[in-house]
Specification:
Radius of gyration: 21 Å
Shape: globular
Helix content: under 10%
Number of strands: 22
Distance between the termini: 63 Å
Number of helices: 1
Strand content: over 45%
């Protein structure tokens, strides 16, 4: 019996430690701890509601049991479903403890819906919590801002990632990054030898084409 209890205690400790290695991802890109995601996409449901639903996922590096808590700091009631468990819409919603396997990625389905157009800011703090110690092991802020710049990268997997208003690129050899508007005019460019980045803050709404390392992709700014 003592051996069984020792093994059980070790298993709980290992899964608790694993909770420390759960990471957030937005649109396929990792969001650093205490980072902020800003988006402006709204969809209209078949029922005539307006809905905001950020593409947030959690990934466990090691096996872990985690809880998720979402706090809407602007006062709206949000819905949360995680690991097949759904709660009742409220300004603060939490999941039960969910076991995640090593390398497993799960959708963090939370949203806010309204019968009227959502033309105001909706901001939430999202926490990953160790259910044993109740300590916060990761946290990000997710903010809907209807006036924020919306950027979508098409074929942006050619060594390029989009993160919070900036395209980040990485190359193992010397190459160049170039950006063209829809008229074919070059509006930006730089030499790249390793890592680099390009801010989209100065771009006007429209369609742009980038060239990076001999590959091309499309950027849509709304």
């Amino acid at each position: 019996m003592k051996k069984f209890l020792l093994l059980a205690a070790f298993s709980v400790a290992a899964m608790t430690a694993g909770a420390q290695n759960v990471k957030f991802f937005y649109q396929g890109n990792e969001v650093p701890k205490d980072g902020t995601v800003v988006f402006s996409e709204v969809t209209e449901t078949p029922f005539g509601e307006y809905e905001i639903k950020p593409d947030i996922k959690l990934k466990a590096t090691n096996q872990a049991t985690v809880m998720v808590k979402v706090v809407c700091t602007t006062g709206q009631a949000v819905n949360l479903c995680f690991g097949g468990e759904c709660g009742v819409a409220a300004t603060t919603v939490s999941s039960p403890g969910i076991v995640m396997g090593a390398g497993q990625m799960l959708n963090l389905d939370y949203d806010y819906a309204s019968d009227n157009a959502i033309d105001y800011i909706v901001s939430t703090d999202v926490y990953v919590i160790d259910p044993i110690s109740e300590a916060t092991v990761n946290k990000i802020t997710v903010k809907f801002d209807p006036n924020a710049q919306s950027v979508k990268g098409v074929n942006a997997d050619n060594g390029i990632a989009y993160r919070n208003g900036t395209f980040v690129f990485n190359s193992s050899e010397s190459t160049s990054f170039e950006l063209f508007n829809c008229a074919g005019q070059k509006i930006a460019g730089s030499s790249v030898n390793g890592a680099g980045e390009f801010s989209t803050a100065s771009l006007q709404p429209g369609v742009y084409v980038y060239s990076f390392g001999g590959k091309k992709g499309k950027i849509i700014v709304k």
